[in-house]
TrEMBL record:
One Pfam family cited in the UniProt record for this chain: Glyco_hydro_42
InterPro entries recorded: Beta_galactosidase_C, Beta_galactosidase_Trimer, Class_I_gatase-like, GH, Glyco_hydro_42, Glyco_hydro_42_N, Glyco_hydro_b
Protein family according to the UniProt entry: Belongs to the glycosyl hydrolase 42 family.
Domain Beta-galactosidase trimerisation per the UniProt entry, residue ranges: 405-584
Listed name of the protein: Beta-galactosidase
Length: 661
């Protein structure tokens, strides 16, 4: 295992606290008030220049750094550090007008207009050159600026395009992946519906077509688009490194909702390790049947997985409602404190927000902020100050890590493949199922990492694969089990290979490991349940499945197969296979023997430990429930400075961070 990178933002003392700061939207007088209030709130890091391309580079060949110089100097004088962004996520209208071929084309073939943001084609040569030029100029100018803490490349990479540049780049990418046209035809199974390509010029990105498109094409296009965004990120990061060696570089991943816009696992090599750090943006979605505390924990655990277990940074969250959500929702008093603490508990080196001061104009003028339209005399700002005070008290936590003993498998390719049209059930999507399992484990007090099935799993006692639809082979999972791990696999897993071809003999990639054979899929209509003979129920999906070399733990009551829940011992470990989505996961989790460290702790008492290599450890306790709950730890609560005894109840809504004896 590579050594941990535990000092991800060396120049920031203690934990980071702040948000996106857009002073270019405000008159100069406001800046002084900003700095005064930032100091009052304990802000020590702000993200600047995220969307300021138009100010720095107002026209072709025109450069003006006066305002950014002033902002950086203001921050340095005010003792606030800068996460300096490259501003390349939003080319200004002059750029789009001068280079209309850089505007993205959607699948309908419509070239989008300027007027919003992220209006670029990742494959357009002019745009690609412009972002490297921009990153170089900024790095050259600000490398030694005293305010500079780190570099922030782009913003939430997600854009894809189907223009002619995209088509050309896609063909080159496909040649690399599949060798030649024969290889491509085999990989995409083009004998189906007479889709055989006889010349590369016939190969197109997924533009709208008459009927269900080729799923192999859709899957490869998502991989290709993710790789193109990674190439953009790398090109800027390398340009920065040339002038500003040794400064941390990041980009903000988006882990809100179904966060599968890019295959972040393929980014790992370029976003972790020396002078790189993983940062994420997590906006809690309202109307979540699972609830916000578990949703926040999921975003944090997913990010920690992307960071390979290293500390990471929550770059954006909201203090209250988000502008882009239709319909109003508001966080309850104290939520922003509890949520922020949960991210920190799970490895974030601080809590950052979008944005510092609410904008008076623009598309996000009603997005909540640290300093709301209501001004500093407001509940939100008071909570912001409280959070700033807490984070200051938690400075010694910086650099500690979370040691999860359980993992949930996440493979972006598998999520994408399961989403392609033509599936037997439109309800067998992956992301909600990962959330459901994560929440069930969260409720049991089990902290999980979300990791790739091909990574080293040896540190985990339990690995859960709720829905691993795409898998080439079982080698890594088999090795994990044989060495003593417990692997639990949900239904409709191991079905297709990386070309999205159904494996012969179901479930092809996993049948041998599981000791089972799936004869037939039986999707379960929404709202219906299937009964198991041990009292459990299943939903959404079921399979007529036979045990070949596995013990039947439970059978369907009404199905002609030979089982619904299977278990097989293998080497020093064991595998479980589920032929339906078990409705109540808790009895199953009990049966496979996964428990949190504090099995007596009530549900909704969140307990997570961070530890330093030298043994110092911190138990974060967050009571999300309506009842007092005992926190079975002894030490000192860093938030109050008072000793903590195992009998001390944590009141509803209360938090503690106990430096353990
Ligand atoms: C994203 C973007 C920000 C802002 C927020 C609003 O995370 O990175 O610029 O638009 O959403 O929620």
């Amino acid at each position: 295992m590579a050594p941990r990178n535990t000092d991800i933002i060396p120049t920031v003392e203690g934990l980071a606290f702040g948000g996106d700061y857009n002073p270019e939207q405000w008159p100069r007088e406001t800046w002084d008030e900003d700095l005064r209030l930032m100091r009052e709130a304990g802000v020590n890091l702000v993200s600047v220049n995220i969307f300021a391309w138009a100010g720095i580079n107002p026209g072709p060949g025109e450069w003006d750094f006066t305002q950014l110089d002033a902002i950086m100097d203001l921050l340095a004088a005010g003792g606030v550090q800068a996460d300096l962004a490259t501003s390349t996520a939003s080319p200004p209208p002059w750029f789009s007008q001068a280079h209309p071929e850089t505007l993205p084309v959607n699948p309908e073939g419509v070239r989008l207009n300027s007027g919003a943001r992220a209006e670029y084609c990742p494959h357009a040569p002019v745009y690609r050159a412009a972002v490297v030029d921009m990153a170089s100029r900024l790095a050259e100018r600000y490398a030694d600026h005293p305010a500079l803490a780190m570099w922030h490349v782009g913003n939430e990479y997600y854009r894809s395009c189907t223009c002619d540049f995209a088509a050309e780049a896609f063909r080159a990418w496909l040649t690399e992946r599949h060798g030649d046209l024969d290889g491509l035809n085999r990989a995409w199974g083009t004998t189906f519906w007479s889709q055989t390509y006889s010349d590369w010029s016939q190969v197109l990105p997924p533009r709208i077509c008459a009927e269900t498109p080729n799923p192999g094409l859709l899957l490869d296009f998502r991989r290709f688009s993710s790789d193109a965004l990674l190439a953009l990120f790398r090109s800027e990061a390398e340009a920065i490194e040339a002038h500003s060696p040794g400064k941390p570089i990041t980009t903000n991943f988006m882990v809100t909702g179904n966060f599968t816009g890019a295959d972040y696992h393929r980014w790992r090599e370029h976003t972790t390790g020396p002078n790189r750090l993983v940062a994420s943006d997590h906006y809690l979605l309202p109307d979540d049947p699972i609830g916000w505390p578990a949703q926040a924990a999921f975003g944090a655990d997913a990010t920690r997985g992307l960071a390979d277990g290293d500390p990471w940074l929550l770059m954006e969250q909201s203090t209250n409602s988000s502008a882009w959500r239709r319909g109003y929702f508001a966080k309850r008093p104290g939520d922003l404190l509890r949520h922020s603490l949960s991210y920190v508990a799970r490895g974030s080196e601080g809590a950052m927000f979008f944005q510092w001061r609410a904008s008076r104009y623009g598309a996000e003028r009603y997005h909540s902020a640290m300093l709301p339209h209501g001004g500093p005399d407001s509940r939100v700002f008071r909570e912001v100050k409280q959070l700033g005070a807490w984070l200051k008290l938690l400075g010694e936590v910086k650099g500690s890590t979370v040691d999860s003993r359980a993992a949930i498998l996440l493979d972006f390719n598998s999520c994408w493949a399961a989403d392609t049209p033509g599936q037997p059930s439109s309800d067998m999507t992956t992301y909600p199922e990962l959330r459901r399992w994560h929440a069930a484990l969260w409720r049991r007090g089990v902290t999980t990492d979300l990791v790739n099935p091909e990574w080293d799993l040896s540190r985990y006692t339990h690995v859960f694969a709720p829905h691993l639809y795409l898998l080439d082979d079982d080698a890594n999972l088999r090795a994990y089990v044989e060495r003593g791990g417990t692997l639990v696999v949900g239904p409709y897993s191991g079905i297709v290979d990386s070309n999205d071809h159904v494996h012969p003999g179901l479930p092809g990639a996993l049948g041998g490991l599981m000791g089972i054979r799936v004869e037939e899929f039986v999707p379960v209509p929404k709202g219906d349940k299937v009964a198991l003979d041990n009292g459990w129920e299943g939903e959404t999906w079921s399979e007529v499945t036979h045990a070949l070399d596995a013990e039947v733990v439970a059978d369907f009551k009404d199905y002609p197969g030979t089982g619904a829940v299977f278990r097989r011992r293998l080497g020093d470990g064991e595998v479980w296979y589920l032929a339906t989505r078990i409705t109540d996961l808790d009895p199953l989790l009990a049966a496979v023997g996964v428990t949190g460290e504090f099995p007596e702790a009530p549900e909704n008492l969140e307990l997570v430990r961070r530890s330093h290599e030298d043994g110092r450890s911190y138990l974060f306790a967050i009571n999300h429930s309506d009842a007092p709950a005992n926190v079975p730890a002894a030490g000192r609560d860093l938030l109050t400075g008072n000793p903590w005894a195992p009998t001390r109840p944590l009141e509803p809504g209360e938090c503690a961070v106990i430096r353990e004896d």
